[in-house]
Amino acid sequence: MIAQHYVDMLGGKSVIRQLSEWSTARGKEIGYENVFDYSLGNPSVPCPPKFTQTMLHLLQTCDPVTLHGYSPTLTIPSVRAAVAENLRSRFGVPYTADHIFMTTGAAGALAHALRCVGVPGQNIITFAPFFSEYTPYVEGAGMTLRVVPPRVQDFQIDFDGLKALLDKDTAAVLINTPNNPSGVAYSPETLRNLAACLQAASARFGHHIFLISDEPYREIVFGGAAQQHPAAYYPDTLTCYSFSKSLSLPGERIGYVAANPACEKAELIVPMCGQISRGTGHNCPPSLIQLAVAECLDVTSDLSVYERNMELIYAELVRLGFTVLKPGGTFYIFPKALEADATAFCRKAQDYDLALVPGDGFGCPGYFRMAYCIETEKVERSFEALRRFVRDCYGR
Fold first, then answer.
1. pLDDT truncated to tens, each residue of the chain (396 aa)?
2. Distance between CA atoms of 130 and 176, rounded to whole angstroms?
């Protein structure tokens, strides 16, 4: 017999993917340039030239059998060492190669991190609004996802809400900063308070409560703000990273888990990841891509377009009377819908060829997400459709 659990999941298809598919189909009718698709967080800028040059050099100069062969179980030592040195020099946390495990993107990193620190029956706590795929990630590891309601005035952490959910069965707290979908970056004060809260809870319940920090948007911060690394605030932290946004490589599926050297059993985390790979099938990320990103840790794509787009959209939303926080990073903005039912709001927007994502799936009903990783000229052209939508449907 087939596994009914996954049959049941077919009924919960991603709203984001459905909207992206609608945008593609609508584009065939009227031209995709006329569909204002704010649905999918797919980087819109090319990878840096250095990455392409590195790939070509590796392909032209390396032994193909070695280059395309399996990497070691614990992934390529020289790559791990390079990542550790980069993190150490940037954030002051004394990582070594022994604390880095390369993975198939941030999803692979989270799959390993969750299983390193939790067992079936425990719970993981996260904060709304949150990336909706956290639910299958956590449930797939046999645990329960508990969600702290959103603090909508600033989308920082509601510590009273966190304390109400922490208990003896809490394995870890899962954060995402800068945040998808809100675009908010946690402040140093928030991170210090989170560290103090988790230290107190660990002492109270008699076991280490880990922090799992999901950081694929780490490099996309605005206004010249410093990039934050939560592991620098709390010892029991596993950092999950993807190069999909910083290097515009979502299709290459490459990232890593970094275990803070001061965390519980730090020396065992990477060997454990090697064993977890055996059970999850996340074995050996492509050797070629591991080697290539190791040579590109000092560069990013041209990420400035995202801040430019954000400023344009934020100003237009404010002008139209939306309640919206100005993002501190990512390529998402998360306004309050103009009616209580954000799903209905987003359906009406489709009549104006606008693809907007309702916030219900992010644990924050009444809001909607715009992924502005599109060409700036298309952002500007979308405003006429947005204005007509708001005027016709809401009289503004």
1. 888 888 888 776 688 888 889 889 998 999 999 999 999 899 999 999 999 999 999 999 999 999 999 999 999 999 999 999 999 999 999 999 999 999 999 999 999 999 999 999 999 999 999 999 999 999 999 999 999 999 999 999 999 999 999 999 999 999 999 999 999 999 999 999 999 999 999 999 999 999 999 999 999 999 999 999 999 999 999 999 999 999 999 999 999 999 999 999 999 999 999 999 998 888 889 999 999 999 999 999 999 999 999 999 999 999 999 999 999 999 999 999 999 999 999 999 999 999 999 999 999 999 999 999 999 999 999 999 999 999 999 988
2. 8
Give the separation between CA 369 and CA 350, rounded to whole angstroms.
14
For residue 272, the 8-state DSSP code is: H
Which residue, 149, 90, 143, is CA-closest to 114? 143
Distance CA(23)–CA(28), nearest Å, equals 9
Integer Cα distance of 34 and 50 in angstroms: 33
